[in-house]
Design goal:
It holds the Pfam family Usp. Belongs to the universal stress protein A family. This is Universal stress protein. By secondary structure, the chain is of the alpha/beta class. The protein folds into 2 domains: 141 residues, HUPs (Rossmann fold, 3-Layer(aba) Sandwich), CATH 3.40.50; 143 residues, Rossmann fold, CATH 3.40.50. Strand 6, helix 5 and strand 7 form a beta-alpha-beta unit. 40% of the residues lie in helices and 21% in strands.
């Protein structure tokens, strides 16, 4: 089965930036690129003239224009394109079911509601089974100059909890041949925040800062062994994870964060850290689901 990267497009500047980023990413990782435009005829219950044929033609034109532009810029890229007759969220989730990643565009307003599919962006990030990359308008071709910039990833929890996020980040750094900066943020817990056993270990290590450094190094150990070519720089910061990651990623080419998958959840949730960096990061952001 061919390994695929899916990008959603709608003709907007944000989606064009996402398509350009996705094409370069597909070339870099030797993936097949599948371009998807979701369109479904939905008659309005208001007295407005609608032309189903014209709307269908415009949907096809958006797809063909995107496909032609990507083929012109990336002639060796394996590329397919499809108009999916459905509303955006289920259309893209279905298309990305077996994909390596899903790429979305943002209008660049700095809000999750600014994704290429409007309010659908948060739903897609919260529900996708694969990593989702958000690219703002202006970050497509412009970010090609930052392809040599490092990848930044946020690490939290233990070895197993952060495995999927670190795997994705190391893969990205290896494919780009750039350093990887790994950031673990911590805050002083309330009295009941750590178990007596954890606090005992922290005391033996000389305090919470060395304890956090040891946890970070332990999480990194298997990935450093698997990707010896990647220069991984570990950094522990006290304070907000969102602030620490945004500061570390000010000149990054890609910022990677995790999203915990929950079996039962009310509404769409992507986590406070992912929400913060999607609002404010200056570079593309990859949100990786993990247990």
């Amino acid at each position: 089965m061919k390994r695929t990267l899916v990008v959603g497009v709608d003709g907007s500047p944000g989606s064009r930036a996402a398509a350009d980023w996705a094409a370069r990413e597909a070339e870099r990782r030797n993936l097949h690129l599948h371009v998807v435009h979701a369109w479904l005829w939905q008659p309005l219950a208001v007295p407005v003239v609608q032309d189903r044929g014209a709307e269908a033609r415009r949907a096809q034109e958006i797809l063909e224009e995107t496909e032609a532009e990507l083929t012109r810029r990336h002639p060796r890229l394996a590329l397919t394109a499809e108009v999916v007759p459905d509303v955006p969220v289920p259309a893209l989730l279905r298309s990305a079911k077996e994909a390596e990643m899903l790429v979305l565009g943002s209008r660049g307003y700095g809000a999750v509601a600014g994704f290429l599919l409007g309010s659908y962006g948060q739903q897609l990030i919260a529900a996708a089974e694969c990593p989702v990359v958000s690219v703002r308008a202006g970050q497509g071709r412009a970010v090609s100059a930052a392809d040599g910039a490092e990848v930044v990833v946020g690490q939290q929890g233990g070895v197993e909890e952060s495995a999927e996020v670190l795997r994705f980040a190391f893969e990205e750094a290896a494919a780009r041949r750039v350093p990887l900066r790994v950031v673990r943020a911590w805050s002083l817990p309330p009295v009941y925040g750590y178990s007596p056993g954890s606090l005992g270990i922290a005391d033996r290590l000389g305090g919470l800062q060395p304890y956090e450094k040891a946890a970070l190094e332990q999480a990194l150990e298997p990935w450093r062994s698997r990707y010896p070519e990647v220069e991984a720089v570990a950094r522990v910061e006290q304070g907000s994870a969102g602030h620490a990651l945004l500061a570390a990623a000010s000149d990054a080419g890609l910022l990677v964060v995790g999203r915990r998958v929950r079996d039962a959840v009310l509404g769409s949730r992507i986590g406070s850290v992912a929400h913060a960096v999607l609002h404010h990061a200056a570079c593309p952001v990859a949100v990786v689901p993990h247990r």
